Each structure stands twice: as C-alpha cells, then as structure tokens.
Amino acid sequence: MSGHDSKYFSTTKKGEIPELKDELNSQYKDKRKDAVKKVIAAMTVGKDVSSLFTDVVNCMQTENLELKKLVYLYLINYAKSQPDLAILAVNTFVKDSQDPNPLIRALAVRTMGCIRVDKITEYLCDPLQKCLKDDDPYVRKTASICVAKLYDINAELVEDRGFLDTLKDLISDNNPMVVANAVAALAEIQENSTRPIFEITSNTLAKLLTALNECTEWGQVFILDALSKYKAADAREAENIVERVTPRLQHANCAVVLSAVKMILLQMELITSTDVVRNLCKKMAPPLVTLLSAEPEIQYVALRNINLIVQRRPTILAHEIKVFFCKYNDPIYVKMEKLEIMIKLASDRNIDQVLLEFKEYATEVDVDFVRKAVRAIGRCAIKLERAAERCISVLLELIKIKVNYVVQEAIIVIKDIFRRYPNTYESIIATLCESLDTLDEPEAKASMIWIIGEYAERIDNADELLESFLESFPEEPASVQLQLLTATVKLFLKKPTEGPQQMIQVVLNNATVETDNPDLRDRAYIYWRLLSTDPEAAKDVVLAEKPVISDDSNQIDSTLLDELLANIATLSSVYHKPPEAFVSRVKTAIQRPDDEEYPDGSETGYSETSSHAAESSGPAPTSSGTSPYAPTKQPGQAAGVAAPAAQMPDLLGDLIGLDNSLVPVDQPATPTGPPLPVLLPASSGEGLQISAQLTRRDGQIFYSMLFENNTQMALDGFMIQFNKNTFGLAAAGPLQVPQIQPGTSARTLLPMVLSQNVSPGPPSSVLQVAVKNNQQRVWYFNDKVSLLALLSEDGRMERADFLEKWKSLPDSNEVTKDLPGVVVNSVEATLDRLAASNMFFIAKRRHANQEVLYLSAKTSWGIPLLIELTAIVGIPGIKCAIKIPNLELAPLFFEATEAVLKG
Amino acid sequence: MPVAASAVYFLNLRGDVLINRLYRDDVGGNMVDAFRTHIMQTKELGTCPVRQIGGCSFFYMRISNVYIVIVVSSNANVACAFKFVVEAVALFKSYFGGAFDEDAIRNNFVLIYELLDEIMDFGYPQNLSPEILKLYITQEGVRSPFSSKPTDKPVPNATLQVTGAVGWRREGLVYKKNEVFLDIVESVNLLMSSKGSVLRCDVTGKILMKCFLSGMPDLKLGLNDKIGLEKESQLKSRPTKSGKTIELDDVTFHQCVNLTRFNSEKTVSFVPPDGEFELMKYRITEGVNLPFRVLPTIKELGRTRMEVNVKVKSVFGAKMFALGVVIKIPVPKQTAKTSFQVTSGRAKYNASIDCLVWKIRKFPGQTEPTLSAEVELISTIAEKKSWTRPPIQMEFQVPMFTASGLRVRFLKVWEKSGYNTVEWVRYITKAGSYEIRC
C-alpha cells in the first residue's frame, strides 16, 4: 500500500525552478499538488526553493487538507527568510483558525506558532485566544503548546495578553491530554523565566495526579516531570504521592517508568519510615531491570541512570548483579556501562562470580573493553579488602596469557593495589618483572618503574632493571621520566652503593641539564639539593609513608548527585553533568566571533570531581565538562598569567610518588606581549582557535602561536605546514604543542627559517598556513607577513656607507608614502621604538619646523633599506621615503613602519 | 523539561537527508552536517548513541538502512526521545505495511511529513497510536482513484478520540464474529559457563493480542501468577485450586491497562485497541524450565587441529518438539577443513561467521543428538595470541511450551450488547540470547 513519492525527487533538469513555477500556477489542482510535493522534496534534499515563496503561498487556499499541510510545511521552513512575503499567508491562517473543522483550526494555530516572524506573531494572538477556549479538546491541546511557542518568540506579548492565566485554567480542563500539554507548556515557560509563573500547589498536585491515570503515555511523562519539582511538606504527603505514582512503574513506556522512578526517589528523601523505604526499593528494582531488555539505546540511557541510582540507594539492585553481566552481542557502549555498574555492585558475597565474568571479558576481542575489564578487577581489589587476594590471582592468570595490552593494564592496576595494601603482595613482583620488556605504554612503564623503586630493597636486581630503562631516558615521555627520577632516588636511598650512585648521577644530569621540561628539572633540583644537604631528611621525604588510597573513581559528589537524580531520564543524567554545563541560553548554535569579548580567562566550566575520574573514567559521551560557551582564555592578557598558575603540579605529592598520573603540561617559557591576532576563529575552526604572529627574538624568527581549544575533546598531534611564499618562510622544526584539554589553551614558539620554499611569481605578503591535529580535519588560514620580524639586528650602517648606498641607487628606486595616521611626539621615543624593531638611526636634519630622520635597516637575507622620515613633532602625518634595491618590499616596509610608529 | 527533540532527521547510510523536520528554533538547520562530520564519518559511529557536539546533543538510532537522528540543545528527556523514535518507527511501519527503509521513506515522504507534524508538536510527543491516527491521516493509496472528491472530511469525532481517555480505540466498531487471539511468546535468555553452571537465565515474555471485537468491550485477563491468585483467593475467600503458580519478576502493560486497578486488585483489566497489539510484557528469573541443555567439549590438538563434540539435550515433554533449531559453534578464523558426524539434522561450516552451523528442523523432546567434528586449521606463524572462544549460540522455537510455566487461566469479555466471543490461545518459546561458553 506504499506510495510512490520517490518520483518527486527525480526531476533535476536544468530550469527546474521556472518549471516548478509554471506548475505551481497551473489551473489543474492535481498538477499544483504534485508541484508542491516536488518543492518539498527539493527542500528536503537541501535545495534552495525560497524563490518560489509567492507561488507556493498561492496554493494555500485550498480545500485539500494534504496540500494545505504541505504548503504550511514550506512556510515553516522559509517564512523566516522571506518575512515580508510571509504576511501574504496571514489571511488564510486567520480564516483557517475559524474553520468549522477542528483539525484545520488546530493546524492553523500549530503552524502559525512555528513561524517566527514578528508580523505574523501579532496576528497570532487573537486566533490563539479563541483556540485556547475552543470547544474541541484537540484544538485546545494544540493551542496550549502554542502558548509556549509564542513565549519563546515574545515573552512579553504572552504575559500582556494574559495567555498564562488561560493556560493555568487549562490545568483543570476535563480532557487529560489538554491538561498534559498545558502542564508541559507551563513547565517550559517557568524554566525560561525568573519570575514564579507555574508553582505547583497541593491543589494542582491532586488534580494532576488524578489526570495521570487517564492521559496518554507521553502526557504522563510531562506531568511526572513537572511534578518532580514539587516539594512535599512532610513524610506523610511524600508517602501519599509515592503511592499514587508507583503504579506507573508497570508502564510499558520506558520514559514513564524513568520519570516515575525520579519522582519516587525524590520523595523518598523525605520518607522516614525504613519499612516504606525498603518496600519502595523492592518495588523499583524489577522495572529498572526490565529496562535492560529494551532497545540498546534505551538500555544505555537506563544504565547511565542506574549508575546514579545505585550510588544513592545501593540496596535497590544489590541482588541483581547478574542482570548486568554482559552479553556477547551487546553493543560496546552497553558493555562499558554494565561493567561500571558491576564494579559498583560488587560485594564480598558476589565477588567470585563477578571475577569469573571479568576474567571472561578480559579475553574478548574489543581492546577498550578488555582493558576496562582488567581495570575493573583492580578496582574491586581496592574496594573489597577480603577479595584482594583473589583479584590478584586472577590478574596473574591474565598476565600469563601474555596478551600485550592485558599485561600492561594489569601492571597499572597492580601498582594501585600495592598502594592500597602495602607490604602484602610483593611476592608477585618477580612475575611482573618477567613482562618488563613488553611494556611500551607510558602509563604501564611508569607503573612498573614505581613498583621497582618502591620495593627496591626487595628486588635483588632492582638496579639492573632500572638501568635498562635509563638508557632511553631522553626519549621517554615526561610521565616516565618523572617516575624514573623518583625511582632512582628511592633506589639510591635504599641501597646507597656504587651502582645506584652512578645511576643517580646520570639521572640527575639528564633531568637537569638535558631537559626542557621545567617540572622534571625542578623535581630533579629538589632531589639534588635534598641529597646533598641532608640524606637523612631526603629519606624522610622520599620514603615517607603514603596515605592509603581508596576506590573513589567515578563516584559523584553528593550535592551533584542530588542534582543529577532530580534530572533522571534527561541528558544531564546521561552525561553525569548538571544541565548548565552543557545547555546554554544562547539560542543559536553558531559560535559568534564576538566570543573574544569575554572579559577574562577564568575557567568557569565544570570539571570532573576527582582527578582519579580522569584516570579511569568510562566512555563518557564527552570527555570534557566545559560548556562550549564558557569564556575562553583571552590571548595575552590572561593566558600568560593564568595558565602557569593553573598548571602548577602538586610538587610535594609528586615527590613522594603520590601522584604519578598527573603529568603537568609542558609549558615552554610563556611569551607575553600584545595579544596575537586571531587567524582561525573558533567559529570556523569548529571550536579550535588559532592566533599567531611572526616575531623576532634574539636574532631568530619565530612563529608565536596560541591554540585555544573550545571543542569538547582533547586535541593532540598538532602539525603545521607553510605554503610556498615570497620569503621562503618555513618551520625550522616540528610544531611542539602538548595535548590541549578542552577549555584550555597552549602557546608555543615555532622557530622559522627563511628561503626554504620560495614561491615564484609576484611577491606577496600572504603566508598560507595549514595546521592539523589528530582529532580534526586540516585547517587552512592566511597570515600576513610583517617585515618587522624579518629585519636583522645587524642593519646599522655607518654614515659614509649610507651616503654611498643612497647615491648608488637610482632615483627610480625611491618610493615615498604619506602615513597620515602617525604622530611623532618625541623624536627620541620614536627612534627608540624604531631601533627596537631593528631600524637604526643614522642622522637627523631640521628643515623649517620639520624633522628629517635617516635610518637604515637590513633584511635577514641581506637586502639593505635606506629610510628617510619627515615629520613635524606633535602634528599627525609623516612622510616616509625609502630607497631599496627591489621595490616589491616597499609596501611591506611602509606597513611595518606604520605599525611600529603607531605602537 | 520533557522536550524530546528540537529537530528530527532521517539519513541514509551515506548521510543524505531523507527527511528533516525542525520543531524548534534553538538548533541550526545545518546541524546535520555536524552529525555527518563528527559521527558518521568517524570511528565514533556506534560507540555511543548520545553525543554532544558544540552546543547541541545528538541521539541516534539505526533502523535497517536508515539513521534517525534527534538534535536538541536543551536538557531534553533522552528516554522520551528514544522511545518516541521506537514508537514512530512502529507507526510508520503500520502505515507502510511492514518495511521501514530508505525506499519506503522516499516513497512516502509526504505522508511522513504529515505524520511528523501530527505526532510531535514543538518537541513534545503527542498521540502516536496508529489506530487513531489512521482515522484522519489517510494515505492517498487507500482512496479510490475514481472518487472525484477527496475525503478530506474527517471521520466525525476524530479529534475527540485523539484526545479522549480511550485514546487507542475508536467507537462504533462492528464485527460479525467476535474473536480474540492471544499469543504468549517467550524468549529464553541463557548464559551458561563451559562447566555447565547457569550464570544468568531469564525469560522475557510478551502477550500479543489480536482483537476483533464489536463496541467498547471490557476485558479481564487471568494468569497463573502467584500474586494474582493470592489476591483472588483473598477477595473470594476461598482457596485456590492446586496447580503450578509462577512468580513474575516484573510486568509492564500497554497503555490500555488500568494500572491503578492492577496495583490494588492485581487484575489485568482493559479496553483493548482494535486489531493487533502487545498487551503486556513480563520477566521471570526463578524456576525457568530450560528447553535445551548443551554439553560441548572442544579440544585443541596441537596448533593445526581441533576436535569438537557437542551434545544437545531436549528437556521438554516427549510429545512436543522444537522447530528451526540452529546451533552455531564458533571455530577459529584460520579454519581450513572440517568434517562432521551428526546423529540428527545437517551441519556445515560457514566461513563468513566463523562457525559450524548445525541445523535440526524438527527436534523431538527427550532426545539428545550429538555432533562430532574435526577441524583442521592453517598453521600461521604470527598467531601467538590464543584464540578467544566466543560462546556457542542457539536458536529454536518450541510451540505450546512456556519456559516460565505461564498459563492463561481465563479471558473474560464484557460488552453491553452481551455478545459471545471466541478466544484462541497459543504458546511459543523462542531462544533469546541463548549462549553457552566453551
């Protein structure tokens, strides 16, 4: 019985629009209808058919409901782009809103509310007023939602016309669907308003709970969600509410069930009777379990919510751990969430079963899942003291399989287990050491090195083991270097023999002289000083007893948990973030260029509560918590100051090996100075903003760059490429940018060389740059080369040379330009400024009230510039003349000079 | 805020837009591009159904060869959104007569737009019952091509029925013969360890109903579940007849069932929609009768040979039989040659899924056929990692058998005209995810 609409997609001939225009104006109804269908088909595939607006609107006045609906659909899409023509439709709308057929009345009001054109909105008020009091419930339920639409366009209008009161009256409507829609509309309006508009009293509560029984499944969701804002007065009222809501747990619609669960959990906080609470917990378990037999996407939502629920009420699902066992064919996102919940529900009673499962998962195919399973075993060991030994033996069995990533993951968790239970399981170190050669991931390496250092006195060949790592010290990542440093110091303090003594020399040398990493250097210097002044004190510091760790990973702090539980079933509960962290009041999704005007660089974005969370967090849908609209760092003024402070590592913690996961971002000496020009705004870089400028320091040309990550993910693997250009500017080395976490920024100075890839053709100051990273596509942007960066320090000329050069160059090589916007207030200051930019003063001459200055400069590739500046002190306007062998540089020079003189 | 969507997109697997419907102004029209570049064209696809990109969140589901994508920028109700998609797809299927795929969408795009306009308003789901919507949103194809006047006049009272308390049934239905068909369909989910111990086992059942009843009938269903029976004997103060009772872990009902009444009286009473619908779903974990036991022994003989022996025991009544039994026994990827001996059915090696597939069309109760196979493997030098053995999977259907032991005790029909009805009940048990680790 299916239709054959696909033919409407097929006309792609030339002249389609005129053809459609003809058909739309055809005298035959069927032809007009077909034409409108073609227009809608074109609109769907993204063609611009807005030019047909008048013709389509002409088809609006029709008896045919199907055709009318299509025209309305067109209007919704294009009215905004043709606001003046949209007014043509108003008459028909108003007429339709009085049609005897309730379906047409409702359709007119529904569509008018979707057309966000001011002129139309004015005409909407009267029909809406009537429709809100229509005899037909279908019209009333549509009109209720329309009030929310209107509020979104023009809140004042809604309040002035008294629509809110009418809407509130509809809560007592005799039709349950009208009630439900009115509640939804009021709840939404309340959410967007600071004034109290829709407050639920015990009276409305009673009404709504009654309506709950009669309305559609979706209406039940609207009502339950609105009622979840209600605060019961006392335990008795809470019990009453819960009693009315519990039957909803048996609904087939998962959204109804989750909203009912939310309502019950919120009221439970007030209920004091433990019997009632226990009973409710018992009642909630089965429906929650049932959600796990729904579609995988719904399962995922349910699991994210269950994760929250078990943190607040662990008893609810304490006996149901089996339902969270992963099925072989579960999608990966379901498996990961199940694993997380299994860890939360693991107890001494069920740990044997759970471990068997984890072991099974650790032999599956998906690497991420396997790793998480191995980590899960470690987390159970830390959580359940009595089960630790069993966990360890499972880990050892897994190590014996010799699958590389399993081994590495196991070593990482075993390090944590050692921290949790010191001096208990050292007997297994020998087994771990067997896998030493296979370690190639930084975290695993760092963990193993920590273990060796920590138990150096019990490992006979600890010095040999460490030495094997030392050879590659300079190539290791920072986290491993830090760990190696600390471990060597520990080894030396525990076994102050000759071997370790030599090792410590090597390490300290490597970590102080040979490195650019300030954290490593600082830590090494502290050790060095400690060791040289008081070895006993060094022992006290370095070998101090460490506080016991616990498995608080992925635990959400209690106030946040409260907020998330109040948002069950919503995005907030899936992201595990409060709504304001990802919802912005900004209506458009496009990031505006004026973002830069945010005042300062303070990071207001929400971040995960514990640092451990970052270490082993689950596959959260987005790894960052920063709102996309959180103020970004302002280049220069804030980044330079705020960044180092924020990145200050907990040095003392690091020293005693407290924290080996927090690797401070390598921050090369942060250049300060004027803000860099933005070359790739965040709006076109999908959240990545790049500011850059050529600068000159100590005779070298650098490309000073600032990367600001406003995306939702960490960016790394930055690379840069310069297109062929007039000066042959190219990067002298690879771009060194650390991984940039969302909401943070990084600065770098990229050394540049000249004359590498000179482009033929007419000279141009344009520098085309391409930047890529591992997460995004390649970004291209243009920079303008400033000659200032290319003037060499040895451009000073002797007077005689200057005169000779000036004479040797023909007059045709002299170019003059007026720089009207420049004022010379003091000759000295001007000269200083020019000298700082490598334009050197030769001589001065007074001509009437004019000062004439002669200067010289030289480009990095050896072309001399002879400059004559004529100005009147204190009067704007300056005449700049230059003699130069190749004239192409002149415009660039004027630009540069103007920039310098303007400051 | 129970908003479920700001925009809905239907995309094909290449990312072409098939349908787009904007419900709210808070997401840009180009958001579908973000979905394409950040999810469809990356490895992200399929790793998480809820994703945030920029200021917007995307929920997506794949149905046959179509992605349905919902975009929101507020703290939307995700559960509501996904359920809406599921229900909407069911609605479209009932309009298209079965299939929901790219072709069906292209062929019905006008109808889809019309329905999308009706079933969601400003992001809030409205009535999605096919039964009611078909009253006033009719397809062109249904109309006779000869009728000069299109039947735009809606059925009287359509609007009242959309919003009515019985929003799923229309009035004035007449059938010559009043019949009700009940299908009890159970899926057994099993996860068994290689040693034969049950790791997880449950039954998810559903009662499907087909009603051809006149007027506005009130129905009442009685099952042999423990709580219902206890309540009944309490009310009638007489002991229940002996017989097997079962304990339902959880029940969920179609929206037509009066939940408050179920909560207080434990009776399932309802006014059914016309035609076919899913009355209830239930779950049972205690006292499940497993229809099959599987006893595998798989031996790896050196690096190039494997011996596989699988015995399957049917443990249901000898007079019953199972249909369409398929046992999939995984073998390593580098399988070169296989040879089989089976005491029943046929077996072959399917290289595309790396399994030995053993099919038995008709499998009587209380029998235990066996399969023994020899598998030769290509010896590979690089293969150091041991083969991770996926579980054995099984498919079957056992008619007139319920793994839970559930029985329909009665189905009563009241209608004011007092007609007689004929009731039909069928039982069937199928394999859900029936896995045996080996």
Q: What topology emerges from the helices and strands here?
A:
The complex is a heterodimer of chains A (903) and B (438).
Chain A: H1 16-24, H2 29-44, H3 53-58, H4 65-78, H5 83-86, H6 90-96, H7 102-114, H8 118-132, H9 137-153, H10 155-160, H11 163-169, H12 176-191, H13 202-212, H14 217-227, H15 235-245, H16 254-268, H17 274-290, H18 296-312, H19 332-345, H20 351-361, H21 367-383, H22 388-401, H23 404-420, H24 429-434, H25 442-454, H26 462-470, H27 478-494, H28 498-512, H29 518-533, H30 535-542, H31 558-565, H32 571-575, H33 611-616, H34 639-646, H35 651-655, E1 678-680, E2 688-697, E3 700-709, E4 719-722, E5 730-731, E6 745-753, E7 766-772, E8 779-784, H36 799-808, E9 814-819, H37 827-836, E10 840-847, E11 850-858, E12 864-871, E13 878-883, H38 889-902
Antiparallel strand pairs in A: 1-2, 2-3, 3-6, 4-7, 5-6, 7-8, 9-13, 10-11, 11-12, 12-13
Chain B: E1 7-12, E2 17-22, H1 31-40, E3 50-53, E4 56-63, E5 66-72, H2 78-96, H3 102-107, H4 109-119, E6 120-121, E7 124-125, H5 130-136, H6 158-163, E8 179-192, E9 198-212, E10 218-223, H7 226-236, E11 250-253, H8 259-265, E12 268-270, E13 275-284, E14 292-301, E15 305-314, E16 321-330, E17 335-342, E18 346-350, E19 355-364, E20 370-377, E21 392-399, E22 408-414, E23 422-436
Parallel strand pairs in B: 8-23
Antiparallel strand pairs in B: 1-2, 1-5, 3-4, 4-5, 6-7, 8-9, 9-13, 10-12, 10-22, 11-13, 14-15, 15-20, 16-19, 16-21, 17-20, 18-19, 21-23
